[in-house]
Recover the amino acids of this structure.
C-alpha cells in the first residue's frame, strides 16, 4: 500500500488503524492494479466488451425483445426472417434474424449467454474452492495426504478436461433416473466441468503454500497454537490468492467453451433451456440451407465472450506478476 | 537407459491399473448389469443364474482381477445399447479414428515446424507477424466452430468437399481405409485440418520460441565463427536442439488430440471412436465408456513411452547419463 500524506502517521500507542483517509472506492482506484488497468487499452477494451455482454446476459429478461421460450410470444409466420430485414408477412424486423419458429435470435442469444455464464461461473467457483482447499491441505499437511492428492491431480491433469467431464456426465446419466435428468442437467454440467478443472488450482496453491509455510507469520501462528485449519484459511489462504484469481479468470473462458462444447456434442443443456453451445448445435442444421444467422450470432457471442475474458486473464497474469514490473 | 525405460514402463502400468479401477467401478456402481441385460421382468431364478454366470457373486478383488484379465484381451462385454460386443464395435471404428488422428498429427507437426522455423528466422517479417496473430485467434476459437466454419466455406458455399462421413472406403482385411479412394481422401481433408489446427498453432509457437532461444546460444556463435553457412546453422544446429522440447509437448498433447477428435468426429459425423463414445455418454452405455477410457489410457501410456525413448535418439547427453532425463 502506498503512503498518501506524511501527516497521517499515527501517534504512538494507538493501534495501527490509519483508516480515516480515502474511501474504499477511491483507494481501489489508486491501487497498483488499477493503475496497470488504466494503462492497458487491451484490458480496458476487453473488460468493456465482457462487462457489456455479461450485463446484457444477466438483464436478458428485462432487455430482450421477447421471451424466446414462451410459445405465446412466437409467431410462426415470422420464421426464418433474415437479420435486419422486415418480415414479408408481419413487417417486423429482427436485428439478428429469427429461427424457424419465429424466435428472435437476439433474445435467444441473450438468454443462451445467461445459461453459459451461469454454468461457467458456478463451475469455476466450484473447482476453485475444491482445488484451493485440497491444495492448502496438500501443501500444509504434507505426508500421505499430499501424496494422494497430488498423484490424483497428476493423473487428472494428463487427461483433457473435456474427456473427464464427458465421463462424469455419462456416469451421472446412468445413476440418475431418466425422469429427473433434464432438471438435473444444469447442476450436472456445473459439477462435471468443476470436477474436471480442480487439479490446476490444487497444484498452484500447494506450491505457494509450501513457500508460505516456512515464513515467520505461520510459525508465529503455530506457536500460539492456532488450529491447523485456521492457519490454512485465515493466514495462508489470503497470501496465495493472487495466482488463484488469474487461473480462475482464464478458466472462466475455458469453462464457457467447455460447456459450449459439451452442449454442442449433445450432452449438455437441452434445447428447451439452451446455452450458446446448444444454440450452435441447433443452428448447424440450418447451415446447409443458407440460414447462416441462426448459427452465426450464438457463435460470435461465444467467441467474443471467451476472447474478452481470456485477454483480461492474460493481462491480470502480467499485472500480478512481480517479475514483470 | 534400461533402468530408465523400465521405470517408465512401471509407471505406465500403474496408470493403466488406476484407470482400469475407475472403469471397473463404473461397471459395478452405474446401474445393475444383470437388470441391464435381462430387463426388468426377469425372474429371480434367471437373475441368480446370470449373476453366477457373470461372476458377480465373486469377491471384489477377484472380480477386479478378472476385469483386468479381460481388458488385457480387449474384452469389455456387450454394449447395453447396441447389443453387440464392444470389442467388435471398437475394431470397426478404430481405423477411422487412427487415420484421422495420425494424419492430423503429421500435418500439425510438419506445418507447425515449418511455420515456426520460418517465423523465427524472419522474426519481424510481415508474413511471420500475420502467422503469429492468426495463431492467437486460432487458440481462442473452439474446435467445433473451426469445423463448422470449414464446412460452411468448402462444403456449403464452394461445394468442393463433402461435409460429412468418410466417403468410400476400401477394406484391407479388417482395416477400412479411406486413403485409397478419391472420395475417401476428399472426406479426410476438412476433419484433418480441424483436428490439426490447435496442435499446429501450439507447435508453431513453441518451435519459434525455442528456436529464438537456441539461436542465442554459444554453440551457434561458435559455429558461425567456424564459418558454417547460415542455412546449415539454422537447419542442422539450431533446429535439432529445438526439437527436444517440441517432441515432449507434441507427445503430451496427444491427450488433447483424442479429446478434440471426439469433437471433430461429431462435427463431421465421422464414424470413429470419439463419435461412438459421445453416443455412449448420451445413453450411459457403460461397457463402451469403459472400453474407450481404457483405450485412451493405453494410447496415452504408449505415447509417453515413445516420447521418453525419443529423448535418447535426439539428445546424445542422455545416452551416457540417463538421470538427466528427469530435468526435461
Amino acid at each position: 500500500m502506498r503512503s498518501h500524506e506524511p501527516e497521517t502517521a499515527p501517534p504512538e500507542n494507538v493501534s495501527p488503524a490509519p483508516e480515516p483517509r480515502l474511501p474504499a472506492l477511491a483507494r481501489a482506484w489508486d491501487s497498483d492494479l488499477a493503475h496497470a488497468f488504466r494503462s492497458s487499452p487491451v484490458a480496458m477494451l476487453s473488460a468493456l466488451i465482457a462487462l457489456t455482454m455479461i450485463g446484457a446476459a444477466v438483464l436478458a429478461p428485462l432487455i430482450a425483445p421477447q421471451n424466446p421460450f414462451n410459445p405465446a410470444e412466437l409467431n410462426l409466420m415470422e420464421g426464418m426472417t433474415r437479420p435486419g430485414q422486415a418480415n414479408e408477412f408481419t413487417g417486423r424486423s429482427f436485428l439478428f434474424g429469427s429461427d424457424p419458429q419465429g424466435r428472435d435470435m437476439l433474445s435467444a442469444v441473450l438468454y443462451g449467454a445467461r445459461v453459459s455464464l451461469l454454468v461457467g461461473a458456478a463451475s469455476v467457483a466450484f473447482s476453485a474452492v475444491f482445488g484451493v482447499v485440497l491444495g492448502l491441505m496438500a501443501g500444509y499437511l504434507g505426508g500421505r495426504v499430499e501424496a494422494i492428492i497430488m498423484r490424483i491431480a497428476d493423473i487428472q491433469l494428463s487427461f483433457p478436461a473435456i474427456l473427464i467431464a464427458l465421463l462424469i456426465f455419462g456416469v451421472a446419466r446412468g445413476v440418475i433416473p431418466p425422469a429427473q435428468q433434464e432438471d438435473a442437467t444444469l447442476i450436472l454440467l456445473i459439477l462435471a466441468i468443476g470436477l474436471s478443472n480442480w487439479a490446476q488450482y490444487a497444484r498452484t496453491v500447494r506450491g505457494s503454500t509450501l513457500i508460505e509455510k516456512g515464513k515467520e507469520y505461520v510459525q508465529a501462528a503455530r506457536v500460539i497454537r492456532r488450529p491447523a485449519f485456521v492457519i490454512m484459511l485465515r493466514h495462508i489462504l489470503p497470501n496465495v490468492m493472487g495466482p488463484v484469481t488469474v487461473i480462475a479468470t482464464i478458466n472462466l473462458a475455458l469453462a464457457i467453451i467447455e460447456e459450449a462444447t459439451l452442449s454442442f456434442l449433445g450432452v449438455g443443456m437441452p434445447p428447451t433451456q439452451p446455452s450458446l453451445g446448444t444454440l450452435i448445435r441447433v443452428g448447424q442444421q440450418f447451415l446447409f440451407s443458407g440460414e447462416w444467422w441462426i448459427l452465426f450470432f450464438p457463435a460470435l457471442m461465444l467467441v467474443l465472450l471467451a476472447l474478452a475474458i481470456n485477454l483480461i486473464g492474460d493481462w491480470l497474469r502480467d499485472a500480478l506478476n512481480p517479475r514483470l514490473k | 537407459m534400461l533402468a530408465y525405460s523400465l521405470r517408465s514402463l512401471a509407471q505406465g502400468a500403474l496408470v493403466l491399473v488406476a484407470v482400469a479401477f475407475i472403469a471397473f467401478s463404473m461397471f459395478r456402481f452405474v446401474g445393475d448389469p444383470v437388470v441391464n441385460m435381462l430387463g426388468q421382468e426377469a425372474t429371480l431364478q434367471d437373475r441368480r443364474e446370470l449373476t453366477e454366470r457373470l461372476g458377480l457373486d465373486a469377491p471384489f478383488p477377484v472380480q477386479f482381477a478378472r476385469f483386468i484379465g479381460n481388458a488385457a484381451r480387449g474384452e469389455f462385454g456387450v454394449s447395453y445399447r447396441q447389443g453387440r460386443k464392444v470389442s467388435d464395435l471398437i475394431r470397426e471404428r478404430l481405423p477411422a479414428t487412427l487415420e484421422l488422428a495420425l494424419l492430423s498429427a503429421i500435418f500439425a507437426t510438419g506445418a507447425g515446424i515449418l511455420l515456426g522455423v520460418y517465423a523465427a528466422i524472419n522474426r519481424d517479417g510481415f508474413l511471420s507477424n500475420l502467422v503469429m496473430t492468426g495463431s492467437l485467434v486460432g487458440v481462442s476459437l473452439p474446435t467445433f466452430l473451426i469445423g463448422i466454419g470449414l464446412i460452411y466455406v468448402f462444403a456449403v458455399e464452394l461445394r468442393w468437399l463433402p461435409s460429412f462421413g468418410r466417403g468410400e472406403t476400401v477394406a484391407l482385411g479388417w482395416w477400412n481405409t479411406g486413403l485409397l479412394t478419391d472420395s475417401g481422401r476428399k472426406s479426410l481433408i476438412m476433419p484433418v485440418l480441424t483436428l490439426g489446427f490447435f496442435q499446429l498453432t501450439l507447435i508453431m509457437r513453441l518451435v519459434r520460441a525455442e528456436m529464438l532461444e537456441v539461436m542465442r546460444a554459444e554453440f551457434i556463435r561458435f559455429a558461425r565463427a567456424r564459418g558454417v553457412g547460415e542455412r546449415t546453422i539454422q537447419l542442422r544446429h539450431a533446429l535439432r536442439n529445438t526439437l527436444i522440447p517440441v517432441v515432449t509437448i507434441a507427445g503430451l498433447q496427444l491427450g488433447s488430440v483424442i479429446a478434440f477428435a471426439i469433437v471433430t468426429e461429431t462435427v463431421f459425423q465421422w464414424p470413429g471412436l470419439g463419435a461412438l463414445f459421445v453416443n455412449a455418454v448420451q445413453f450411459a452405455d457403460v461397457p463402451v465408456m469403459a472400453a474407450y477410457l481404457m483405450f485412451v489410457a493405453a494410447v496415452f501410456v504408449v505415447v509417453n513411452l515413445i516420447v521418453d525413448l525419443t529423448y535418447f535418439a535426439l539428445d546424445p547427453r542422455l545416452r551416457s547419463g540417463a538421470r538427466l532425463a528427469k530435468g526435461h
Remarks:
- The two ends of chain A are 16 Å apart (CA to CA).
- Residues 228-265 of chain A form the longest helix (38 residues).
